[in-house]
Amino acid sequence: MTNVLYLPELREMLAKNDAAALAEFCTELHPARTAEFMEGLTAKEAWAVLQHAELPLRVEIFGFFETGKQIEIIETLDRAEMAAFIGNLPPDDRVDLLTEVRPWIVEELMPLIPSDERRDIQRLSAYPEDTAGAVMTTQFARLSEDLPVSQAQNKIARQAEELETIYYLYVVDEEDHLRGLVSFRQLVSALGKPDTRIGQLMERDLVTVNVTDDQEEVAARVARYDLLAIPVVDDEHHMLGIITHDDVIDVVREEATEDAHRIAAVAPLDVGYLETRLLTLTWKRGIWLTLLFFGALLTTAALGEYESVTKTYAWLVLFLPLVISTGGNTGGQSAALVIRALATRDITLGDWWRVIRRELAIGLLLGGFLGAIGYLIALRIAPTYAAATVIPLTLLLIVLCSTLLGSLLPLAFRRFGLDPAMMSNPFVSVLIDVLGIIIYMKVALSLLPPGAQ
Questions:
Q1: How does pLDDT run across 77-117, given as a tens digit for each residue?
Q2: How far is it, in rounded angstroms, from Cα 306 to Cα 303?
Q3: Which pLDDT value is given to residue 343?
Q4: For residue 424, what pLDDT is reported?
Q5: CA–CA dist 446, 437 (Å, integer)
Q6: What is the DSSP secondary structure assignment for residue 139, as one 8-state letter?
Q7: Which domains does the chain have, with CATH numbers?
Q8: What is the C-alpha separation between 185 and 166, in angstroms, rounded?
Q9: 190-211: average pLDDT
Q10: Calpha distance 26→62 (Å, rounded)
C-alpha cells in the first residue's frame, strides 16, 4: 500500500468490504496519518473503517480525528455501540468529548456506559473547567512501598495496556496517599536485585499540583520541571490522577488560542473555525465589535467637546490620525508584551513597580524620538515654530500615558482574577484614542494663543 491513499480508493474498499486492505490501512501508517486520510469520510464511513482496527488502535486513531468528526460519530451512530466505545477512551478525553456532545444525547449514553467508567466520568465532570481535575486522567501506575521489585515488574506488566504512561510509577499507601515515585528506568535498573523494596528506590520529594489548580499553572509547573507527567492530589494529599505531557501540550495550545482570540477582541471559539456555526461565529465577533463600537463613540464625543478648538486651529485636525494611531499602537505594544509576560510567568503581580519604571523609561525614549519626527513634520504645516511644539509635546505625553495604560491594565485584570488577554489591543486603543484627543486639545489650548489660525 502506498503512503498516499485517496478517498475513492478507501470508499471502494468499504464497498467491497475488503477487510484485509482496510486492516492494512489502519495499521500501516501512524494513527495521526490514518486519521488525516479519513477526513473526507462521513461519520458512518469512518466508523466502518475503524472496525478493522484492534480496539487500542481504534481508540488511538479516533483520538486524532477533529473534534467535529468525533462528535458526529458519537451523536449519529448506535447508542449502545458508542457507549461501549466511550468506556474505552482515556478518562480525560471522554469527559472533554462528552461536554461537547448534545446534552440529551449524553443522557441517553450515560446509562449504557459501563458502571466503573460512568462513575469516573461523573467524578471528573464535577471538577470546574480549566482546573487540574478537569484535565487529569485517573489511569496511572500504582505501587506500594513494601512491594519487591520482582513483583512490581509483574504488576506493571498487567497494568500496562490500560495506562497512558508507565514512565512514572506512583507509590501510594492503602488510603491512596501519595508517598513517592519510581521511574520505569529505576525499576528496570533494579531488576538485578529482585528483593529490593520499592520504598528503597522511590523519590519522596515530588512536584505535585492540587486538583483545583488552574490548568495554566499546571502547564507552567510541568514546563519548569521538565516532567513527562505530574501527579494531581487533593488537600489531604490523596493521589487522584496524573496530567501527562500531551495533555499539557493541549492546554498550552488551548490557552494560546484563547489568548489570540481575546487579543483580537473575539470571544474564544469552542471548536475549530470551520466547525463553528455561522451564527455562533457572528455572535462571538459581533458582541465585542458592538462594545468597541460604543467605545469609539466616546472618541466622537471627545471631539465634539473640542469642536471650537478644531475650528479655531484648523491645522490641528491634520495631525489627529497621527496622534491617535501613535497612542493606540504604543499602548497595544505594551499590552501585548505584558500579557505574554504574564502568560509565561516572566512577570508576576509583584513586579508591577518594575513594569511601571520600565514603561516610563521606554515611554520617554519613544515619545522623545517620535516627538522629534513629529516636530519636523509640524514645522511645514503649523503657522509658527511655537505652534509646532504642540505636536511633539502631545506625542511625548500620549506615548507616556499609552505605555503606562497598556502595561497596567492587564496587571489590573490579573489582580481581579480576570484573564489579562481580555484587555486586548482594540480595547486599549479605544481608551487611548479618547485620552489622546483630550491630551491633544489640552496641550493646544495651553500653548496656542487665542484666535490663532
A1: 999 999 999 998 988 889 889 988 999 999 999 999 988 88
A2: 5
A3: 77
A4: 62
A5: 14
A6: -
A7: 7-130 (1.25.60.10), 141-247 (3.10.580.10), 278-447 (1.10.357.20)
A8: 10
A9: 88
A10: 11
